[in-house]
Amino acid sequence: MSGAAPTRVGPKRIAARLATAAVLATMALFGCAGPTRMAAPPAPADVRADPGVAEVRYFVARDPGAFEAAAREAFRRELAWRASTGQTGPLPPVNFLAISGGGHDGAFAAGLLNGWTAHGDRPEFKAVTGISTGALIAPFAFLGPRYDGTLKDLYTNISQADIYRKRLPFSALFNDALSSTEPLARLTSHYVTRQLLDEIAAEYAKGRMLLIGTTDLDNLEPVVWNMTAIAASHDPHAVELFREVLMASAAIPGAFPPVMINVTLDGVHYQEMHVDGGVAAQVFTYPPSLNVGQLSANIGAVRERKLYIIRNARLDPDWANTKRRTLSIAGRAIASLIQTQGVGDLYRIYVTARRDHIDYNLAFIPSTFTTVATEQFDTAYMRTLYQTGYDLGAKGYVWSKTPPAYQEATFAPAN
Fold this sequence. Notes:
The chain is of the alpha/beta class. 41% of the residues lie in helices and 16% in strands. The chain has helices spanning 11-30, 64-84, 106-119, 133-143, 148-156, 182-191, 194-204, 227-233, 238-249, 292-299, 326-355, 379-394, and strands spanning 48-49, 57-58, 94-99, 127-131, 165-166, 179-180, 209-216, 221-226, 259-265, 268-276, 305-314, 359-365.
């Protein structure tokens, strides 16, 4: 009896089988080494960041009262510091700075701040807030012009390789992100030292605040971290926690790994998963539920207040010829979502500032900036954008007094 004729397999099918085998082999090799975590704390839970650094963060959507208590305490520290230095008379005006997310577009904020210094009228900020790339800028903006060189170096002399390293193509199947941010962790460790925290702690004693936003992915809620309180705690793990919060605020979900924050509840250890603060907001100041005007009157802190917002993005339509492909369509849709969310944040902050009699000032990347980046954290692109921001700041930036496309209503007198 003759044997059955062999089945012929075409080259396309062979290639498909080889690709499948490669995927399975990769999963078998790395699948057992996938990241793990401790259980998330039960929700809602009142937890504290380990190891025992008390009152360093606020769940502003859940409990704005904790943030208000921190603001009151900061004012008490300011009064004590003024008394200790012999300062009397009316309270001086104060300035606030909010720096948005934007990835490599953070070069705009770095350049604008440094140009503002060159112009000669950059103020000291009572409070600085930051999200994502804004979180990485915020500590140096908070400490003032002596860190202008650091800001310039961070946004003109780094490249993609200094921020993240791409993982294997199939890593999304068994890992927590498409890239590793070990390079960014090394960069953060280089700049965030005990000396830096000591300098921030000295400002904490004056009643100043440095605030960073992350997103608790388990609870889907924003978290505001009081970095000045962390620095002033002098806890042996404070430097590590400070770095973790900065990394978490910049952890773009899916692209960068989340940061696991250890917490305790009733003596039981848990882990929270924190990611980019931009998931919750592109820029923030203080919760709208906190009426600063009323609070100021209640505690005797009536004074002139100015708010400066740096939005690391263009606010005009961003045209592109979108390819008819799944990833291209999804990417453009997400970009639109981020753009509209950012504009919404600017309107929310504007309404809150108007209610509380705070002078509103907005800066953003001008529509005249048309340089195109060839990749994320393109050094040449960032240098050009940094210089654009610097030039605008050095000649005296003309701050917008309203959100984009907003016009104050005017009414004719009634007859």
